[in-house]
Amino acid sequence: MFKNQVNTEPNRVFASQQKDVEGQVDMSVVCFMEFDNGMTAVFDAAMDRTQIDYYEIIGTKGSIRVPKAFIPQMYNGEAHIIVNTTNGTYREEKVLGHQYILEVEYFSQCVLNGEIPRYMMKDTIKNVKVIEACFKSIEKETFIEV
Are residues 32 and 40 in contact, defined by beta-carbon separation less than 8 angstroms? Predict the structure, then answer.
């Protein structure tokens, strides 16, 4: 189902932000990304509106929705995943675990063992390049190649 769609990176981005007039603090951002495989993604983040605690991935064969995504401690570490298909069927799955605790435990084990997985470093560098392109896009008000 996801042939040629995994491990792809954004090749260009467009980002726009809104700042607080008085303090010039970033209040919200919207970003549009184009990927090497022709896919697109949009995300937004904001501090000046009602808290949104979900994300959704929409594709040509269905969607995946995580309605309680970002504050696992409020839900005893339980996350629901809803997978919808274009023919109207869906299934629900549950994931249990406090993601922030698991992340800290994993990172701690890496430090204690003196091992940082290579993919983490590569992914971090790729993420920073995309973030830098987003800031440049905000500054230039245009699409930026990553």
Answer: yes
Please state the pTM of the whole predicted model.
0.77
pLDDT tens-digit map of 50-60: 887 888 999 88
Q: How many CA atoms lie within 13 A of 25 on its CB side?
A: 6
Q: Which residues of the chain have pLDDT under 70?
A: 1-6, 72
pLDDT tens digits, residue range 107-131? 899 999 998 887 888 888 999 999 9
E-only strand ranges, the chain: 10-19, 26-35, 40-46, 55-58, 62-66, 78-85, 90-96, 144-145
Query: What is the residue whose two structure tokens read 């090749």?
Result: 11
- Report the alpha-carbon distance of residue 74 to residue 97 in Å, rounded: 12
Residue 13: exposure state from Cβ atoms within 10 A (0-12, 13-18, ≥19): buried
Identify the CA nearest to 18 among candidates 112, 143, 129, 138.
Answer: 138
